[in-house]
Design goal:
Layout (H helix, E strand, L loop, with lengths): L15 E9 L2 E10 L4 E2 L10 E14 L5 E6 L3 E4 L7 E15 L1
Antiparallel strand pairs: 1-2, 2-7, 3-7, 4-5, 4-6, 4-7
C-alpha cells in the first residue's frame, strides 16, 4: 500500500502532478492532480487526444469545454465529475483558476 497526500502543482510548476502510475499486464492507470491558470487554454492550440479513458473530479474552478468546430461543449465546475472516452478530442478555456483530480485508465 502507498499513501500520498493530495497536493496540487504550484502556478509556476508544470500543470500536472502524478501520484501513481501503475502498469500491470494489459492494464495501466495514472492518477494525479492538475492546476490550470485562469485565462489559459489547454492545449494552447488544437485538441488533445490520448489513448486512455479519463475520469476527472473538478475540485475548484470553471472550464469551458470546446467541440472541434470551436463551439462550446459545456462547462466543468466545482463538484463535477467528468468521463472522457479514450481518443476523445478535448480542449478548454480556463475561466477560473482550476484544480482537479484525474485518473487515466488504459486497457
Amino acid at each position: 500500500m502507498e499513501i500520498k497526500k493530495i497536493t496540487y502543482p504550484k502556478p509556476d510548476e508544470h500543470y500536472n502532478k502524478c501520484f501513481f502510475h501503475v502498469q500491470k499486464e494489459r492494464t495501466e492507470f495514472q492518477m494525479g492532480t492538475v492546476f490550470l491558470k485562469k485565462g489559459t487554454r489547454i492545449p494552447e492550440v488544437g485538441f488533445t487526444r490520448h489513448p486512455s479513458h479519463e475520469i476527472s473530479i473538478i475540485q475548484h474552478g470553471n472550464i469551458q469545454m470546446l467541440n472541434e468546430d470551436g463551439s462550446i461543449k459545456g462547462y466543468l465546475k466545482s463538484g463535477d465529475v467528468v468521463y472522457l472516452e479514450a481518443f476523445e478530442a478535448q480542449a478548454g478555456n480556463i475561466l477560473e483558476d482550476t484544480k482537479l483530480i484525474y485518473m487515466l485508465i488504459k486497457t
